[in-house]
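We were asked to recover a plausible sequence for a given structure. The inputs and outputs are reproduced exactly as logged, with field labels preserved.

PROBLEM: sequence recovery
POSITIONS: 484
GIVEN STRUCTURE:
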């Protein structure tokens, strides 16, 4: 969706939108609009949209008023995103290509939030739908903001790359596994990052063998698709300053392997690369807005398939760190991918902090549902930075416990550890496993996003499907802790 700015109201607009704070209709409205809004009990509540047709300057146009709530509300930014999203939801398929948005009632940052909500809610991926009826198609293509507040255009320029990042993540997550597999994931990133100034590093299977990544390669060995590691590096910060590293689980499809998953719902496992997708989108946002920070994103890309060549329950593999792992369940593959990606990231980039994103466990959905991602961390300060970034960005997180008693649950009689614990505390034992690959108490956090990457129903600022969760969290964390 294209967003432009214009000082005065462009001619020929067929749809004009305006915001109204609670209890306060915009000035200069025609009597029909005023009385109509009253009759429809429109009072400026967030999420409400009232629209009608009026004659202005000799032409009939549609005018929409979107409720923006109370200007003093502590959740003002989030509210305005919902305001923008409500406009998108209402007019996305209404047959109008362009909305003229009167920015007169808004401050610069308020306008940027409204546009963010509008743009994110309008996003949909229809490339495979060749037989959509005209009335189902998205017609809304652009917004022209006229009468913008001072600094409004600059505020949006700073926010737009983040919208782009979220959209890129959603695209990667939405694509089926016959379109997105390790190599094509890399290619799509190469195309997106081309000309941005980011450095992309790709490891193929030969290189990973040489590095001794037996855990990651073991997961991919049953697949016709070759595994990859992709690193995206952005040095926009102080020269020589240790980077922040984001690491993502990029399992492009998770059948479970020989420990195969049940059929119903298996199609969901196309989004088992959601952590990697979030890292790619998060990096795109940071790179496109030229963040003043050194950041590296590393994505472990594999497909987990059952096959004659697949690894078996009982196999023992050696990770790049030298630690050995007894595979008791080939469906607990994400940690095997991440442990080598995490080790390589630390050796290669000596990061100051590491945050990994992964659709790691079904158990986190049992714990937290779809409202929060679970965070596991060895460092209180990093946790509190994530908590704060989560609250500001709307990507909500909740801390989960860790400790030696949980760590004991993954001891193995034959190797240094096994890849599953028992029935209890499945998300925590997964995190304990990852922690064994963090060197020298480097501040680290693991974000289990299994419950938040995908939604089955449309919400305030998103349609159903891929959420793009994680992108805004990463962007906010960098803004708060490195760029500040
Ligand atoms: N990708 C899954 C986790 C998952 C499950 C994500 C459901 C989203 C929705 C992961 O690889 C997995 O299969 N984990 C197992 C671990 C178990 C075998 C210890 C799980 O959660 O059941
Ligand atoms: Zn699995
Ligand atoms: Zn998985």
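RECOVERED SEQUENCE:
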């Amino acid at each position: 969706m294209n967003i432009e700015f214009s000082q005065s109201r462009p001619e020929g607009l067929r749809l004009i939108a305006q915001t109204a704070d609670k209890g306060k209709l915009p000035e200069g409205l025609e009597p029909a609009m005023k009385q109509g809004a009253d009759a429809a009990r429109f009072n400026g509540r967030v999420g409400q949209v009232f629209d009608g047709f009026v004659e202005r300057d000799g032409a009939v146009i549609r005018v929409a008023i979107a409720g923006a709530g109370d200007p003093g509300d502590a959740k003002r930014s989030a509210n305005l995103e919902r305001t923008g999203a409500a406009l998108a939801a209402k007019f996305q398929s209404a047959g109008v290509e362009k909305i003229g948005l009167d920015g007169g009632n808004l401050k610069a940052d308020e306008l940027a939030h409204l546009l963010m909500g509008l743009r994110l809610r309008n996003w949909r991926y229809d490339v495979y739908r060749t037989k959509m009826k005209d009335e189902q198609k998205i017609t809304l293509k652009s917004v022209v903001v006229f009468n913008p507040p001072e600094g409004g255009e600059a505020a949006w320029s700073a926010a737009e790359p983040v919208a782009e990042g979220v959209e890129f993540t959603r695209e990667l997550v939405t694509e089926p596994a016959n379109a997105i597999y390790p190599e094509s994931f890399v290619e799509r990133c190469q195309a997106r990052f081309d000309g941005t100034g980011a450095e992309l590093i790709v490891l193929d299977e030969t290189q990973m063998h040489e590095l001794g990544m037996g855990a990651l390669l073991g997961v991919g060995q049953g697949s016709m698709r070759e595994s990859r590691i992709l690193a995206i590096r952005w040095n926009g910060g102080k020269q020589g300053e240790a980077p922040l590293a984001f690491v993502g689980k990029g399992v492009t499809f998770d059948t479970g392997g020989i420990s195969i998953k049940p059929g119903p719902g298996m199609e969901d496992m196309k989004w088992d690369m959601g952590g990697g997708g979030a890292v790619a989108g998060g990096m795109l946002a940071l790179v496109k807005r030229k963040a003043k920070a050194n950041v590296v994103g590393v994505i472990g890309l594999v497909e987990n398939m059952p096959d004659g060549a697949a690894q078996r329950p009982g196999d023992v593999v050696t990770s790049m760190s030298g630690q050995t792992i007894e595979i008791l369940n080939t469906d607990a593959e994400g940690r095997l991918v991440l442990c080598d990606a995490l080790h390589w990231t630390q050796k290669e980039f000596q990061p100051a902090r590491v945050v990994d994103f992964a659709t790691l466990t079904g158990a986190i959905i049992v714990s937290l549902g779809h409202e929060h991602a679970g965070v596991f961390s060895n460092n209180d300060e990093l946790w509190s930075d994530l908590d704060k970034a989560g609250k500001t960005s709307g990507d909500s997180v909740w801390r989960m416990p860790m400790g030696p008693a949980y760590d004991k649950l993954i001891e193995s009689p034959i190797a240094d550890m096994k890849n599953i614990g028992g029935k209890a505390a499945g998300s925590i034992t997964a995190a304990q496993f990852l922690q064994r690959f963090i060197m020298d108490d480097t501040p680290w956090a693991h974000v289990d996003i299994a419950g938040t990457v995908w939604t089955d129903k449309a919400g305030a600022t998103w349609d159903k499907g891929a959420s793009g969760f994680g992108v805004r969290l990463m962007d906010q964390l960098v803004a708060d802790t490195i760029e500040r």
